[in-house]
C-alpha cells in the first residue's frame, strides 16, 4: 500500500464538514483527479497571464540585454509575460487567509532568513537587510487552486534583486546573468522555520520580474497568518507556491521537496 492509500485508510470516517482541512483538500484533489487538473491549469493560466508591458512600476531586469538576445533558453529573464495588475483601490481590504502548515509554532524570536547556495558559506539575513533592497509593490489577482481568487496588494523586495545583490542562484557564485543560463541552478527551495511547509520553485519563475520576497500587505507589515515576517509572492504561480513565513531558502538542480506536490498536485502549478 502506498503512503496516500495508507493515510486514507486510517482517516476517521467523519462527515465532510468535520474533517480537517488537509483531509478535505486531499480528498477533493483525489476526486478531482489528474485529468481535470491538467486541463484546468493551462486555460486558467492563459486567461490570467496577459502581456501587460505598462504594469505598475515593476522593474524589467536586464531588459537591454534581453532585447539583444532573443534566443536564450526558455524565457529566463523575460519581461513579457507579466500578470495583469490592478489599481491599488481594487485590492481587498481584508485579504483572505488560507493554510496554516508551518505556521502552527510561534515565529522564532531570533528569526533570520537562512540562505544556502552550493559552493558558498551558508549565511543569514535580518528582515532589515531585505527591507534595504528596493521596495516593489504589486496589486494582482491572487489565485488559490481550491477555486477562489482575490485582488491583493503586496510589497517587498524583488527576488531577482535579492539574487543579484547577494550573488545567489549561480554555480559560479556571480550574480545571475541572462547570457549564462547554464550557470543558474534549476530550482529554489523554500521552507518554513519549523519545516512544516515547503515548496520548490523553478528558477525561471523565481527570476520572474513580479516575484517578491514580501514583508507588506496593504502597506502594513504582514501579520502572522499571512506569513510574517517574510513570505513569497509569486504571481505566476497558484497560492500553494506562495510560501508564508520563509525560514530557509536554498538552491539546487534537483527538485526540492514540495508539500502539495507530495500530495498529488502538479509540481509547477503555474506558468
Ligand atoms: N507556510 C505556509 N504557506 C502557505 C500555505 C500553508 O499552509 N503554509 N498555504 C498556501 C496556500 S494553499 C495558499 S492559497 C496561500 C494563502 O495565502 P494567504 O493565507 O495569505 O491568503 O498560502 C500558501 N502558503
Ligand atoms: Mo491555496
Describe what this molecule looks like in 3D:
- It holds the Pfam family Oxidored_molyb.
- This is Molybdopterin-dependent oxidoreductase.
- Keywords: Membrane, Transmembrane, Transmembrane helix.
- The chain has about 270 residues and is α+β, with helices and mostly antiparallel strands.
- The chain folds into two domains: about 5-50; about 60-265, Sulfite Oxidase, Chain A, domain 2.
- It is built from six helices and ten strands.
- The chain has helices spanning about 5-10, 20-50, 65, 125-130, 160-165, 205, and strands at about 115, 125, 135-145, 150-160, 185-190, 200, 210-215, 220, 230-235, 250.
- The strands form two sheets. Strands 2-1-10-5-6 form a five-stranded mixed sheet. Strands 3, 4, 7, 8 and 9 form a five-stranded antiparallel sheet that branches.
- A hairpin with a 2-residue loop joins strand 7 and strand 8.
- The longest helix is centred in the first third of the chain and has 28 residues, at about 20-50.
- It is globular, with a radius of gyration of 19 Å.
- The ligand Nc1nc2c(c(=O)[nH]1)N[C@H]1C(S)=C(S)[C@@H](COP(=O)(O)O)O[C@H]1N2 binds near residues 197 and 244.
Number of domains: 2
Order of helices and strands: HHHEEHEEHEEHEEEE
How helical, in percent, are the residues? 10-25%
Helix/sheet category: alpha+beta
Query: Hey, roughly how much beta strand do the residues contain?
Result: 15-25%
Q: What's the tally of helices?
A: 6
| Oligomeric organization of the protein chains | single chain
Shape: globular
Strand order of the largest sheet: 2-1-10-5-6
CATH class of the largest domain: Alpha Beta
Amino acid at each position: 500500500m502506498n503512503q496516500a492509500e495508507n493515510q486514507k485508510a486510517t482517516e476517521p470516517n467523519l462527515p465532510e464538514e468535520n474533517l480537517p482541512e488537509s483531509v478535505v483538500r486531499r480528498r477533493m484533489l483525489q476526486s478531482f483527479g489528474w485529468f481535470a487538473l491538467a486541463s484546468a491549469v493551462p486555460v486558467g493560466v492563459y486567461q490570467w497571464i496577459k502581456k501587460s508591458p505598462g504594469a505598475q512600476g515593476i522593474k524589467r531586469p536586464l531588459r537591454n540585454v534581453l532585447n539583444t538576445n532573443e534566443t536564450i533558453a526558455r524565457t529566463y529573464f523575460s519581461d513579457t509575460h507579466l500578470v495583469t495588475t490592478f489599481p491599488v483601490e481594487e485590492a481587498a481590504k481584508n485579504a483572505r487567509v488560507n493554510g496554516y502548515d508551518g505556521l502552527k509554532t510561534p515565529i522564532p524570536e531570533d528569526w533570520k532568513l537562512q540562505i544556502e547556495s552550493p559552493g558558498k558559506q551558508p549565511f543569514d539575513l535580518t528582515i532589515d537587510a531585505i527591507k534595504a533592497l528596493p521596495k516593489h509593490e504589486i496589486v494582482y489577482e491572487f489565485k488559490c487552486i481550491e477555486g477562489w481568487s482575490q485582488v491583493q496588494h503586496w510589497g517587498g523586495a524583488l527576488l531577482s534583486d535579492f539574487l543579484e545583490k547577494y550573488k545567489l542562484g549561480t554555480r559560479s557564485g556571480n550574480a545571475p546573468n541572462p547570457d549564462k543560463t547554464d550557470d543558474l541552478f534549476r530550482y529554489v527551495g523554500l521552507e518554513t522555520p519549523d519545516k512544516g511547509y515547503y515548496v520548490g520553485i523553478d528558477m525561471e519563475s523565481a527570476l520572474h520580474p513580479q516575484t517578491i520576497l514580501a514583508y507588506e500587505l496593504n502597506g502594513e507589515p504582514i501579520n502572522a497568518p499571512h506569513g510574517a515576517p517574510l513570505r513569497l509572492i509569486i504571481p505566476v504561480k497558484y497560492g500553494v507556491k506562495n510560501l508564508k513565513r520563509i525560514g530557509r531558502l536554498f538552491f539546487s538542480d534537483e527538485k526540492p521537496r514540495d508539500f502539495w506536490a507530495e500530495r498529488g498536485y502538479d509540481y509547477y502549478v503555474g506558468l
